[in-house]
């Protein structure tokens, strides 16, 4: 595997899931693969889970790890071409990327959407430059439009908690005080649509329609309470307006309706449903304390599976070096 961005990069999902469970049984089984191999993790944005789980997965595989926080100690990077570099940005990404590629075997990139220019974000401009100019396999650690390590961990979690029957999974928008990217819901929708035995229903306020390239023909139900009926899993997430129905709204907060916050009354509609969120989560906006602390909240095992999803991805990449 040369890059990991979309669900197709992983090939058949039942095989990937079997590999994930195998690694979970014995996470050091492939320790020999990473000997004298170096992972470079590049963060343009903050992280807790991705930073720790990716580093842990790499260490399980015997790799060396270098972490670069671009905004803390590195030269400020210019990402646009054709500009006169007389601002505070000392170095251009187009030199920085091949230099970084010299020091490692695999690169992970975290670079969120700017939420100003839909075309620029949805072209995955920064990630594509890493793929093109680093000369190394590259994986997304949440980029402008995708968060595949999260979606893969989410799928592993759904399959662990509902291994036999077809699961009704509801992706629900919830309110937030800041404009957040669409990467998590995009990937979640894409992966659940591709997954075996998952019935995905998406619910959000009108105007928050996700990009069809990710959501496909998933059922969209604008009545949140109706969508939650009989759900086995409730996957809450805020996202800013994707600008699909109205391009001028891209990246904006166009709904602040607090009735979308997941509380006990929402969960009572479900089939004793499990509560999921990628974290970090803001209590009182996305979800109430009682729900996230309750017996049906599986946010911690979900986060733990980030180590497993990343182990599968790194193992696949190491096997192709
Ligand atoms: C990010 C987001 O919504 O994409 C990261 C989630 C994994 N969240 C925040 O910025 C709070
Ligand atoms: N879920 C997730 O990716 O969390 P971090 O932003 O903390 O890495």
Strand content: 15-25%
Number of strands: 12
CATH superfamily of the largest domain: Aspartate/ornithine carbamoyltransferase
What is the second-level CATH architecture of the largest domain? Answer: 3-Layer(aba) Sandwich
Radius of gyration: 19 Å
Globally, the shape reads globular
Overall domain count? 2
CATH class bucket of the largest domain: Alpha Beta
Class derived from helix and strand content: alpha/beta
Walk me through this protein's architecture.
The chain is an alpha/beta fold. The chain has 2 domains: 158 residues, Rossmann fold (3-Layer(aba) Sandwich), CATH 3.40.50; 154 residues, Aspartate/ornithine carbamoyltransferase (Rossmann fold, 3-Layer(aba) Sandwich). It contains 12 helices and 12 strands. A 5-stranded parallel β-sheet has the order 1-7-6-2-3, with helices on both faces. Strands 10-9-8-11-12 form a 5-stranded parallel β-sheet. α3 crosses α5. The chain starts with a strand and ends with a helix. 44% of the residues are buried. The mean pLDDT is 97. The structure holds N-acetyl-L-norvaline (AN0) and phosphoric acid mono(formamide)ester (CP). N-acetyl-L-norvaline binds next to α7.
How would you summarize this macromolecular structure in one to three sentences?
The model has no long low-confidence stretch (mean pLDDT 97). The protein is built from twelve helices and twelve strands.
